[in-house]
Every structure is written in structure tokens, then in C-alpha cells.
Amino acid sequence: MTDEAMSPLRRRMIEDMTIRKLAPKTQHDFVQRVKNFAAFLGRSPDTATFEDVRRYQLHLTASGVGAPTINQTVSTLRFFFRVTLKRHEIVEHTHVIHEPRKLPVVLSVEEVARLLDAAPGLKYKAALSAAYGAGLRANEVVSLKVSDIDSKRMIIRVEQGKGGKDRNVMLSPSLLALLRAWWKMARPQGWLFPGRDPAQPMTTRQLNRACHAAAQMAEINKRVSLHTLRHSFATHLLEQNIDVRVIQVLLGHAKLDTTALYTRVATKTISEVMSPLEHVGETRSAYYALC
Questions:
Q1: Which residue is catalytic, options 82, 209, 227, 268?
Q2: pTM of this structure
Q3: Cα–Cα distance between 156 and 142 in angstroms, integer?
Q4: Which entry of 162, 167, 212, 268 is annotated as an active-site residue?
Q5: CA–CA distances in Å: residue 227 to residues 165, 232, 242, 247, 288
Q6: Which of 8, 17, 78, 161 is deepest in the core (most CB within 10 A)?
Q7: Is residue 11 annotated as a catalytic residue, yes or no?
Q8: CATH number at residue 193
Q9: Set 253, 268, 279, 284: catalytic member
Q10: How far apart are CA 43 and CA 115, in angstroms?
């Protein structure tokens, strides 16, 4: 949707997304995917038929595009045809691809400590510590404001997290001390972690680069991203026997099933479960003792 003839169509789609309060990044991604579809067609996307959509899905698959990208494209086209164009007949024949659910990469407590110690400077150490210490997503970390830190109640207010929901998470004493040290050094006024332009927050790209650099410096031989710290936060809480429903609230998950995934990677919890074979052994020993 790049030329002037398509601008009213783009405007209508953006209005539809705005009415439904889709996040700015989501709106940008939706528009870009429809533009890609239009480029494939070589004409306005509102003239597409079901066969055109089918050909596009085949094109994406043949191009080696992964399941997540294909599913995101299908989701975008469903919105475009169902909401903006009111062409439900096309939506009925679009299908998402089942994605095998892989276990997340999780760091040990010792690896987390090494990564945080290797962070490039106090600013990034504080930001990465917030990601791990409160289980925050990358965009939630960079969106923190100084006023979100409530040292009296020892909580962090997360505004407009995923799904546009606010939530409170715990503020540990050690994280508070680190954030205070950062504040005393930099004196941020609005954003807790400002970018190169103090009027703007640090970008998620900058934060992820710092995370990768710290992992490399710490010689951690795992695929580490900012989200790995969030996975580790949830897993370590589970290994401390924190109720999974409490962890769900802290993470801001809409469904318990999403949080329950961490029960599969909480190795400490798994290793401490007594196998029923042990009971067989105990019963056998008791039997022979009576004989």
C-alpha cells in the first residue's frame, strides 16, 4: 500500500487498528505485511481473491519463511480482509501453521550473576537486573519511568504491558540499591533508562545488544537474549516453590498454560521429585526386614 491510490485503504486499515487499540508497533507491522502482499500481487490488495492469498502462502512457504512469520502474515491478512474489507469468505480459508513448542533457554543462577557482572556499565547492569529481577519484557524495561519505582511499597509499576495491561511486580532490595546507584550517577528525570536523546527512552535494540555483549563477556555458551532473563526469572521462582499462579500474575500472562511451560524446565524442582521407584525400594526393604 505505497501509492496514492491506496492511501485511503491504508488510512482505513490504520483507523480500524486504532479503534481496536492495537499497539503502534503492531500497526506498523500489519501495514508492512499488507504492503508485502500488495508487492507480490502487483496490484491493490483489496482486489485479491482467495486464490491470490493461497498463492502468497505457497510463495512464503517455498521461500523458506518460518512458521512464526507465516502465522503473523495470516493473522494480518485475516484482519485486513475481515475487519477492513468485510470479506469473510477469504478469512474462512486461511489457516495458521502448528508450531512445535520448544523449551525456552534458561540460565542457572550462577550464569545470571556472571552475565549481570559483565554488563557494559551501570546503566545496562541496572536495566538487565530489572529484566531478571522483576521478570520484565524488553519493551517494559525501556518504558520504565522514575515514578514507576515505588520504594515504600517495594513494587514496580508496569504500565501498558503486553495486551495493554498494567501490573505491579516486586522490587527486591538489591535491585532498589542498584537503581538508586544508577539514579545518583545519571539523575534521569523522566525515563529511568533514557536513550542518547534524554527525551526518549533507551531502545530495545540497545538493551538487547548490551545483553548479548554481557553474555559473550561472561562466556555463556547458550543462545541468550533479553527474554532469556525473563524465562530464568520464572523458572527460578518455580524452583523456589512459588505458586505458578503467582508467577502468572508477575509475568502478566493471560493464560496459565503459558506459565505452566516453565514446569518443564525447572530442573531443580524436577530432580527433587521422589520417583515412585524409591517407594518400591522402601516397601521391599520393609518386607525383608519382617521376614
A1: 227
A2: 0.67
A3: 13
A4: 162
A5: 19, 9, 20, 16, 53
A6: 17
A7: no
A8: 1.10.443.10
A9: 253
A10: 50
- Amino acid identity, position 199: A
Residue 78 designated active-site = no
**C-beta separation of 176 from 149 below 8 A:** yes
Cβ-proximal residues to 132 (8 Å cutoff; 6+ apart), any chain? 112, 116, 229, 230, 232, 233
Burial class (CB in 10 A: 0-12, 13-18, 19+), 289: exposed
Q: Is 255 a catalytic residue?
A: no
Answer yes or no: is 259 within a domain: no
Look up residue 252 and give its three cell numbers. Answer: 502478566
Question: Which residue among the candidates 10, 230, 231, 236 is catalytic per the annotation?
Answer: 230
* Residue 118: alpha-carbon gap to chain centroid: 23
Of the residues 10, 123, 125, 137, only one is catalytic, namely 137
Rounded Cα distance, 73 and 58, in Å: 12
Quick check: is 262 catalytic? Answer: yes
For 166-196, write each residue's pLDDT tens digit: 888 999 999 999 999 999 999 998 999 999 8
**Cα angle: 91, vertex 94, 95; to 5 degrees:** 135
Which residue range(s) make up the domain with 15?
4-91
Scan for cell 503467582, then name that residue. Answer: 246
**Confidence band for 117, pLDDT divided at 50, 70 and 90:** very high
Among the candidates 91, 125, 154, a domain finishes at 91
